[in-house]
Specification:
29% helix, TnsA_N, Trna Endonuclease, Chain: A, domain 1, TnsA-like, 242 residues, Transposase, alpha+beta, 2 domains, four-stranded antiparallel β-sheet
Length: 242
């Protein structure tokens, strides 16, 4: 669907002190302001609601990040797991654009600050993407975001096996829960090509549950990788991160 986005595109953001900056010019808004932005919209709670809102403690951010649906939580897990993502902002701003003589507004779900630059993400179930109003909104949002040289992504349901593996590994994301000497010993071991089950049996003088947990923490933190498109098992092969 084509759109004709008139300039200037404007942006409103909620600062860390809960004050708001209104109608800023999109092209010149400093990234530092968005890095510290608070969610533009507050939680919506009502009887019978279909969405499951909540907060997730992000290892990337070192703080809680909100989500408004289970699908948004899925994207949040993927972002937290990705080593190239350096910061996550939920509902980072309100975007406004003049299109065909009307002011259109949209709040993206996430802003991810990555090694490849800022990435604006909208999360939507796949079956809703072809709805005209959804397609229209995402079309002009993409045009506005990419006009600044940033990336834009519409994210729908992922591979369920990958999602469940990442959800499982997220249980091992809090680095302060692991003995640094144990983690250091495992880091010093050549795990490349080793079966996951064999890695769990390393360091026989240490309780196996602690070793297993530390290995899974190394998988979460990206020290080693493995194929995630099938349920994790002892037969998974570990690879050194590129």
């Amino acid at each position: 669907m084509s759109t004709a986005v008139a300039t200037p595109v404007r942006l409103s953001v909620r600062r860390s002190d809960e004050s708001t900056a209104e109608d800023l010019e999109w092209q010149s808004v400093p990234l530092g302001l968005l890095h510290e932005a608070r969610p533009w919209r507050t939680f919506r709670w009502y009887k019978g609601q279909q969405h499951y809102s909540g907060t997730y403690w992000s290892a990337t951010v070192g703080d809680h990040v909100i989500y408004e649906s289970r699908l948004e939580l899925g994207r949040l897990l993927f972002a937290d797991f990705a080593p190239e993502v350096r910061h996550i902002v939920a509902q980072p701003f309100l975007l406004k654009a003049d299109i065909d003589g009307k002011v259109r507004k949209h709040i993206p779900d996430y802003l991810l600050l990555t090694d490849a630059g800022p990435l604006v993400v909208d999360v939507k179930p796949r079956h809703r993407l072809e709805k005209p109003e959804v397609a229209f909104t995402f079309s002009w949002t993409r045009e506005a975001v990419t006009s600044r040289g940033w990336q834009y992504e519409v994210w729908s349901e992922p591979d369920p096996a990958v999602l469940e593996n990442i959800r499982f590994l997220a249980g091992y994301r809090r680095d302060w829960l692991f003995d640094p000497d144990l983690v250091g010993a495992l880091r010093a071991t050549d795990l490349d090509g080793m079966l996951l089950g064999d890695a769990f049996r390393l360091l026989p003088d240490c309780p196996r549950p602690l070793v297993k947990s530390a290995v899974l923490h190394l998988l979460w933190s990206g020290h080693v990788t493995t194929v995630l498109d099938r349920p994790l098992s002892a037969g998974h092969v570990l690879r050194r991160a590129a």
